[in-house]
């Protein structure tokens, strides 16, 4: 019942006596009125005094607290009238006696004293003066020593937790941690407690009333209460396992407790924590009943518990099989398992290590292990769990394992071992150490080598000391010998996992197309060939070129390799030669790649190599496009004096020679048969039409007498064949600044040095790696010639123009066209000459449009264009640097080369000529190339070689000397130079847990290729003694290992799948772990298969002491501590079981009496007959304690007996029951109201 006033109403004092006199019409004098007012004040004070003196209270009655200064003023302030008294006192200020949270102050620090008054006194005051704030109501409670009634200033407050089988979001604390109980004010203000439901009940109320209040608060029926230790660390929702094993103190409220008051049950402190469990109708039981019953049923001894479990799978979160398989192997290492299960890792966490992860990886690993192996007091282990927290942790600290891409299991294991080591490193301050070396005179001294090894190990332990070092770390002995001075260097380095090569030469095969562009003295009859290559898979590009050079007997500098796609260049292997040296050839060139090897003889000092592409118009003219055909070609031009690069004739002849490679037709004979005469050089007199039509006869006069002498103006022009006969030559030049990389070492780099922008680069400077789709961007090469030379190359067409124009002028029919007669060779070649032009003649676009049909002069004849040509674009056109070729710019710089940097020559073929030379596959030389036999390739190359490799073979292969590569040189301190030293790596020592990585992948990151050969490894008795390089006189008898786990990899290119075969040390059986699926392996020999990737061996020792005496001592102590915790857990289960049995017995008794425990009727008058020290008290230890937080008030009023009677007042039981309610606010203003 809450007593509050409406603060919106104005407070008005009561003046009832004066009003009654006025209403009766009595006329009183001023003195009589003053007397009446004084009498009224006295009467009211006497009334209050009488109530305080005569009111007697009993335990459980509710009294009010008001400011003591207010009551003192009421009795003692001097006033003349009651109205004046009202103005002086004002309303009762209840806010002044509580803090901002609405709680009463501690008595020794309260700013305003308080006084306890019975309800009738408070009601009078509220009627007369009003109230500010919420009235403060408290119950009376008897003092156990004096028996006097006192006000209960601080009722008991109960923080309510709920029991649920659903997972709590509360973070795990110490698994067996103890939580002390605090009853201080600071405890109440704990943040965790503030978030919990709060119920406040007087200690004079019964347990049944507390149950009813909690049911009302939670809106639940049929609940059962447990008192627990608080500490403020328990979440609102508590799981049964947490409640049973982690909550140290817990006491069940039984049916016998319900009729007793809270104080009788030992509730004397201010704050308590309760756990509520609700009756489950579907199970016809409370949650703990079934849980504890199952725990009792499955109870086992500690040793039996340690022999259970270890068969829990790990769910695949998405390409996490690599992680799951490695984790299963590592989690089943007995020493690792015990170290984390016994919580020893928490004692060695290194949160300050800059190389570590602040203990996050170790904590996450430990939590995962406990989920899989800590099966409590005998409960069945889960079939599988989802390692999401662990995956999130490793992804947060390693970008390699962030996300859900497939990764390599060995790389993950290596990273995890290193991360665990750094998180658990016992060395917090690492000293700096120089790496020691042997003196030259000690190289052959075994004792000196042993001393060096011991020093290196001790120095390593000064910086690295953890369980990982104790178990996994061994040492390599590395020996380097200089090939020149025989300087020997011996060093020792630690390792956690041993990577062994497989003694299998994985072969790589590829068939290449060979294009021989040798002009003279070729070694091959056919120019296009195919050749199959066999190399070790680990070979690189340089080895491939050397192989081709030796097999074909061609100098390496003449070989150029390109990948083609749709008859165009796609990859230039010369451009990235340095990068290609470090890429396995199988990764660089795939099986389906079309790679062409060009043989291009040239002089790197004087020659430039120009790429050539061939195009023909599409047969479907609606597309108006040109199609690339055949294989790309190259021509070699001499750069000295720019002779070849300026001569169109030389370029044309070299193109004709190169094109012969692509056709099976006798191209040269057919082409030369078109010439009416066969001269080495032609002179001006062979071009009569040019002389006859010229206004300047001297310009075309013959300056030479020898008709065989070369004329630079005539050049290589032929009067019978046009310069564009068969195909037009176009120049496609990109605006590039090509900077090639070295190709085959520094000896060939001179030809690839980047040239200035205005100079043509020597060697092969450029190939277009993008497909050229629009050849209209290319310029006709003849158009770049000076005007005079251009006329000679177009002479056959110019002469035909002149004859046609003359014939048209002499004809009577002005519309009659040129002669349709044509002369063809037997093979169908078109002859363009004086005898006329055929219907298949090379097209001429420019026609005479003059009305008089005068024959065009040589100066006015423009070179004809192909019918598919369009005007030359200025985009990427070399004309910008060559000058304008139009008629206005007749004078062209004769020294300007036709070939510039970035040039690709394009041969645009006439369809008729294309059909004649390449029209069907029989004519195409590239369609059916001749195969060159390679005797070095065996006939059985395609058969899979079935060979069993022993693990001992791999160990021997590991220790074989090898010569360092030219890119992995060693600096010899004697020679003061880098040398290709001989390197030998041997095992000096191995860890107690030996992890062996079988190197099945040449490139693990890309899963480039896999060796599927079966490696036969022993399950028991692996003898590592003969592979340890320690001196023979040192003991090697303790080098026997037994297999405990195998990490398997299925598949090859693209990733595949990982699984694990593990010997579970708990049941001593082999199990197969495939992510979440786990199955027993009846035959342990099944672990030996071709999928084995990582092998885990454990050293065999008589006393089974691994990791050293110190580690074993810690593990033994951890075992004893865990056993003690186990015993405590068992005791807690039994204690709860006993309480549940007691509850059931008392509940059965209640049912016999036809009385429901949830509706016990409480007789407060009989409470005094209850034994306060009954053995069933909830808090037995508190039953003899004095009540705290109670007080007696003392104030000087008229009646001195008020000190005793002011605490007492009887109220009805109905009012008492109404005042038992729930505080719906956490710590609001209502906290001190009667509802508390």
UniProtKB/TrEMBL annotation:
GO terms for molecular function: cysteine-type deubiquitinase activity. It catalyses: Thiol-dependent hydrolysis of ester, thioester, amide, peptide and isopeptide bonds formed by the C-terminal Gly of ubiquitin (a 76-residue protein attached to proteins as an intracellular targeting signal). Gene3D superfamilies: Cysteine proteinases, DUSP-like. Residues 39-141 form the DUSP domain. The keyword Zinc does not apply. Pfam families: DUSP, UCH. InterPro entries: DUSP-like_sf (IPR035927), Papain-like_cys_pep_sf (IPR038765), Pept_C19_DUSP (IPR006615), Peptidase_C19_UCH (IPR001394), Ub_carboxyl-term_hydrolase (IPR050185), USP (IPR028889), USP_CS (IPR018200). Residues 168-181 have a biased composition (Basic residues). Residues 168-190, 807-826, 848-883, 1143-1178 are annotated as: Disordered. Keywords: Hydrolase, Protease, Thiol protease, Ubl conjugation pathway. The keyword Protease applies. Its EC number is 3.4.19.12. Residues 1143-1153, 1164-1178 have a biased composition (Acidic residues). Belongs to the peptidase C19 family. This is ubiquitinyl hydrolase 1. It comes from Scheffersomyces spartinae. The gene is UBP12.
């Amino acid at each position: 019942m809450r007593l509050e006033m409406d603060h919106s109403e104005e407070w008005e004092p009561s003046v009832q006596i004066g009003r009654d006199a006025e209403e009766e019409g009595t006329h009183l004098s001023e003195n009589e009125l003053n007397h009446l007012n004084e009498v009224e004040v006295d009467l009211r004070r006497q009334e209050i005094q009488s109530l305080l003196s005569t009111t007697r209270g009993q335990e459980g009655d509710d009294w009010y607290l008001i400011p003591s200064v207010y009551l003192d003023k009421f009795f003692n302030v001097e006033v003349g009238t009651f109205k004046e008294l009202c103005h002086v006192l004002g309303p009762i200020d209840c806010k002044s006696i509580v803090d901002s949270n609405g709680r009463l102050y501690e008595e020794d620090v309260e700013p305003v004293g308080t006084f306890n008054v019975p309800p009738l006194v408070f009601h009078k005051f509220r009627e007369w003066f009003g109230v500010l704030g919420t009235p403060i109501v408290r119950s009376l409670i008897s003092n156990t020593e004096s028996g006097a009634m006192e006000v209960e200033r601080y009722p008991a407050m109960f923080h309510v937790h709920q029991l649920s089988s659903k997972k709590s979001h509360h973070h795990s604390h110490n698994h067996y941690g103890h939580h002390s109980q605090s009853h201080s004010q600071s405890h109440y203000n704990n943040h965790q407690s503030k978030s919990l439901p709060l119920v406040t009940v007087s200690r004079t109320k019964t347990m049944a009333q507390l149950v009813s209040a909690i049911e009302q608060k939670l809106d639940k029926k049929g609940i059962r209460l447990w008192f627990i230790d608080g500490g403020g660390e328990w979440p609102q929702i508590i799981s049964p396992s947490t409640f049973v094993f982690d909550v140290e103190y817990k006491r069940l409220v039984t049916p016998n407790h319900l009729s007793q008051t809270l104080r009788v049950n030992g509730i004397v402190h201010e704050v308590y924590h309760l756990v509520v469990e609700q009756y489950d109708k579907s199970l016809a039981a409370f949650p703990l009943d079934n849980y504890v019953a199952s725990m009792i049923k499955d109870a086992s001894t500690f040793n039996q518990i340690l022999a259970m479990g270890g068969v829990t799978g790990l769910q695949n979160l998405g390409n996490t099989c690599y992680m799951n398989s490695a984790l299963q192997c590592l989690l089943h290492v007995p020493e690792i398992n015990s170290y984390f299960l016994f919580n020893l890792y928490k004692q060695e966490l290194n949160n300050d290590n800059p190389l570590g992860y602040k203990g996050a990886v170790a904590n996450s690993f430990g939590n995962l292990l406990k989920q899989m192996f800590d099966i409590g007091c005998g409960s069945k282990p889960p079939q599988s769990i989802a390692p999401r927290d662990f995956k999130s942790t490793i992804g947060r600290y390693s970008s390699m394992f962030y996300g859900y891409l497939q990764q390599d299991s060995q790389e993950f294991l290596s990273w995890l071992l290193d991360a665990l080591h750094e998180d658990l490193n016992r060395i917090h301050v690492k000293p700096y150490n120089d790496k020691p070396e042997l003196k030259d005179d000690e190289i052959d001294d075994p004792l000196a080598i042993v001393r060096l090894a011991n020093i290196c190990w001790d120095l390593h332990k000064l910086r690295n000391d953890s369980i990982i070092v104790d178990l996994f770390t061994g040492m390599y002995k590395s020996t380097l010998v200089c090939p020149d001075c025989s300087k020997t260097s011996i060093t020792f380095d630690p390792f956690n996992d041993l990577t062994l090569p497989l003694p299998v030469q994985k072969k790589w095969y590829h068939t290449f197309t060979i294009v021989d562009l040798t002009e003279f003295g070729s070694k091959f009859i056919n120019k296009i060939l195919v050749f199959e290559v066999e190399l070790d898979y680990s070979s690189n590009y340089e080895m491939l070129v050397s192989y081709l050079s030796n097999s074909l007997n061609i100098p390496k500098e003449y070989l150029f390799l390109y990948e083609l796609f749709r008859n165009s260049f796609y990859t230039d292997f010369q451009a990235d030669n340095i990068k290609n040296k470090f890429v396995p050839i199988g990764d660089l060139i795939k099986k389906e790649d079309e790679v062409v090897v060009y043989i291009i003889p040239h002089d790197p000092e004087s020659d430039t190599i120009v790429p050539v592409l061939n195009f023909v118009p599409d047969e479907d003219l609606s597309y108006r496009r040109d199609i690339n055909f055949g294989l790309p070609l190259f021509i070699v031009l001499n750069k000295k004096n720019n002779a070849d690069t300026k001569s169109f004739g030389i370029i044309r002849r070299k193109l004709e020679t190169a094109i012969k490679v692509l056709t099976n037709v006798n191209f040269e004979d057919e082409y030369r048969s078109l010439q009416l005469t066969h001269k080495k050089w032609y002179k001006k007199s062979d071009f009569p039409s040019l002389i006859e039509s010229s206004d300047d006869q001297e310009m075309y006069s013959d300056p030479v007498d020898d008709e065989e002498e070369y004329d630079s103006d005539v050049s290589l022009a032929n009067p019978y064949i046009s310069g564009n006969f068969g195909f037009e030559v176009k120049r496609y030049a990109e605006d590039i600044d090509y900077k090639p990389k070295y190709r085959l070492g520094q000896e060939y780099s001179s030809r690839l040095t980047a040239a200035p922008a205005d100079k043509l680069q020597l060697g092969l400077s450029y190939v277009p790696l993008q497909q050229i789709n629009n050849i209209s961007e290319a310029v006709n090469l003849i158009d770049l010639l000076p005007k005079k030379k251009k006329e000679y190359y177009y002479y056959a067409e110019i002469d035909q123009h002149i004859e046609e124009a003359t014939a048209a002028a002499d004809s009577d029919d002005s519309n009659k066209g040129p002669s349709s007669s044509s002369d063809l060779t037997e093979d169908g070649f078109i002859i363009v000459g004086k005898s006329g032009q055929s219907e298949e003649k090379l097209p001429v676009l420019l026609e005479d449009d003059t009305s008089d049909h005068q024959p065009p002069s040589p100066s006015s004849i423009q070179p004809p264009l192909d019918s598919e040509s369009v005007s030359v674009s200025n985009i990427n056109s070399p004309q910008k640097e060559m000058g304008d070729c139009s008629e206005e710019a007749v004078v062209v710089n004769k020294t300007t080369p036709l070939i510039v940097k970035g040039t690709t020559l394009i041969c645009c073929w006439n369809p008729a000529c294309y059909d004649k030379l390449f029209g069907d596959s029989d004519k195409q030389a590239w369609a059916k190339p001749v195969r060159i036999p390679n005797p070095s390739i065996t006939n059985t190359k395609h058969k899979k070689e079935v060979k069993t490799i022993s693990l001992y073979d791999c160990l021997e292969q590991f220790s074989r000397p090898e010569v360092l590569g030219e890119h992995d040189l060693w600096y010899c301190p004697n020679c003061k130079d880098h040398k290709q030293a001989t390197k030998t790596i041997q095992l000096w020592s191995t860890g107690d847990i030996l992890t062996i990585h079988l190197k099945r992948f040449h490139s693990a990151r890309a899963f480039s290729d896999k060796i599927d050969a079966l490696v036969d490894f022993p399950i028991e008795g692996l003898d590592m003694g003969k592979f340890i390089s320690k001196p023979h006189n040192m003991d090697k008898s303790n080098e026997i290992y037994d297999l405990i786990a195998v990490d398997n990899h299925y598949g090859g290119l693209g990733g595949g799948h990982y699984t694990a075969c593990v010997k579970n040390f708990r049941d001593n059986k082999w199990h197969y772990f495939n992510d979440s699926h786990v199955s027993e392996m009846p035959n342990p020999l099944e672990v030996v298969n071709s999928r084995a990737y990582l092998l885990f061996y454990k050293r065999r020792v008589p006393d089974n002491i691994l990791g050293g005496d110190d580690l074993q001592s810690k593990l033994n102590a951890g075992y004893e501590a865990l056993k003690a915790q186990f015993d405590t857990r068992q005791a807690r289960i039994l204690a709860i079981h006993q309480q549940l049995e007691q509850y059931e017995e008392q509940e059965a008794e209640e049912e016999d009496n036809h009385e429901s425990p949830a509706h016990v009727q409480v007789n407060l008058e009989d409470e005094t007959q209850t034994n306060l020290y009954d053995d069933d008290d909830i808090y037995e230890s508190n039953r003899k304690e004095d009540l705290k937080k109670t007080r007696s008030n003392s104030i000087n009023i008229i009646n001195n007996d008020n000190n005793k009677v002011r605490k007492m007042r009887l109220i009805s039981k109905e009012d008492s029951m109404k005042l038992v309610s729930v505080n719906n606010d956490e710590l609001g203003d209502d906290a001190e109201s009667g509802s508390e």
